[in-house]
Amino acid sequence: MARVVEGVDGFEEVVAGELLICRSTDPAWTVLFGVIAGVVTEFGGRLSHAAIVARERRIPAVLGVPLLLDKVRTGDHLTINGSAGTVQVRTVWTTE
User: Which one of the listed residues 20, 33, 49, 87 is annotated catalytic?
Assistant: First the structure.
């Protein structure tokens, strides 16, 4: 499940096993990489902070997704493939 985090103020909302969705990361964000299942950023590439830490932690990362925060919301169900660089939003239907 996706967790959109816009800054350090949102760190406390991250739950273990979620996919971190953000604009980019820097060293202050490293603490989250110990609990997340993967990361998707709007900016960045192979040498960005998110890429380096994700490789070290062996978690999937997809970086440089244009307009990411306009398309994904906290609670969305995503499938990410770090090797292919793809993000798929899975529709979840409810009867409520």
Answer: 49
Residue 72 domain-assigned (yes or no)? yes
77 is catalytic: no
Flag whether the pTM goes above 0.85.
yes
Averages of pLDDT over runs of 10 residues in the chain (96 residues) are 96 98 97 98 96 97 96 94 92 66
State residue 90's pLDDT score.
83
**Into how many domains does the chain fold?**
1
| Calpha distance 81→6 (Å, rounded) | 22
Which range marks the domain in which residue 12 is found? 2-90
For 20, counting Cβ atoms within 10 Å of its Cβ (0-12 exposed, 13-18 middle, 19+ buried), the class is buried
